[in-house]
């Protein structure tokens, strides 16, 4: 029985939820309704009562109990026979959080052709406040966020000259952004997802993949449910809409607390190594 003790200690040290980190938020399990209901949206409607061309517009509002969205940027052209409109949109569809470009049937970008470009901005903030699954942060703790990014239509490709930005912030209970760990390409506290080296999804383009980002709380952290904010922006000319109207989408979000190496785990590894040496001798 005593000969097997190092194996037992090692097994405990490597069990899920200890060495591998504790999953606190999972959009497939305890937050399975995070990206629903389908069809929920916040869309810019820049329409003006006057005949002619109008740029701008913004809109904001809830997508569900957890997600608040903001969209900014659009253009409308009203003539005697109809209206052509385009606007930024944040939406939930097919279990995804989408940053879209919304066009009516006679798209103004198609009507006006080349030479027109729009400044578009998107934002979606999730607060993890579900009863029984609230995300309450601890001080001096590393949190790892993982999620899938789909930019398969090419609008996240920075070589198109549309200056795309797509980032993520991790927020404490007061809405303050938490510092990412060292080594990430980030602007202030916003980690640039486009700048990350995404883990490839089979068959996906370089703009799609599994993003893994870590954040570190300080000595103190504000109380209350924590959250995540996704942000995006682009300068979209008419010519890029042939690529599609979905700028990016997010799925499969997980947040885990990553523990420091435990004394138990280190003792287990050392005892197991000594046990192997004795057996080999």
From TrEMBL:
Signal peptide: 1-21
Coiled-coil features, chain-numbered ranges: none
Any matching Pfam family: PEP-CTERM
Keywords from the UniProt entry: Signal
Domain annotation Ice-binding protein C-terminal: ranges: 257-279
Superkingdom, taxonomy of origin: Bacteria
Classification via InterPro entries: Ice-binding_C (IPR013424)
UniProt-recorded name of the protein: PEP-CTERM sorting domain-containing protein
Species the sequence originates in: Luteolibacter arcticus
């Amino acid at each position: 029985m005593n000969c097997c003790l190092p194996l037992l200690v090692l097994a405990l040290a490597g069990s899920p939820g200890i060495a591998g980190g504790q999953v606190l938020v999972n959009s497939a399990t305890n937050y399975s309704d995070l990206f629903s209901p389908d069809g929920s949206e916040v869309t810019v409607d820049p329409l003006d009562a006057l005949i002619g061309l109008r740029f701008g517009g913004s809109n904001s509002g809830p997508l569900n109990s957890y997600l608040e969205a903001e969209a900014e940027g659009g253009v409308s052209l009203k003539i005697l026979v109809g209206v052509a409109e385009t606007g930024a949109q944040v939406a939930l569809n097919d279990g995804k959080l989408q940053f879209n470009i919304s066009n009516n049937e006679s798209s103004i970008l198609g009507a006006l052709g080349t030479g027109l470009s729009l400044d578009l901005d998107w934002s979606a903030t999730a607060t993890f406040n579900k009863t029984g699954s609230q995300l309450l942060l601890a001080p001096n703790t590393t949190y790892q966020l993982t999620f899938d990014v789909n930019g398969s239509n090419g609008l996240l490709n920075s070589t198109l000259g549309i200056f795309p930005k797509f980032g993520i912030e991790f927020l404490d209970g007061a809405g303050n952004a938490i510092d990412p760990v060292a080594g990430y390409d980030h602007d202030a506290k916003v980690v640039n997802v486009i700048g990350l080296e995404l883990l490839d999804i089979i068959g996906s383009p370089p703009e799609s993949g599994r993003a893994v980002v870590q954040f570190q709380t300080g000595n103190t952290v504000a109380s209350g449910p924590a959250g995540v904010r996704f942000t995006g922006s682009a300068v979209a000319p008419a010519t890029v809409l042939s690529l599609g109207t979905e700028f990016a989408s997010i799925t499969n979000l997980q947040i885990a607390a990553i523990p420091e190496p435990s004394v138990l785990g280190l003792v287990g590894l050392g005892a197991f190594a000594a046990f192997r040496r004795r057996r080999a001798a």
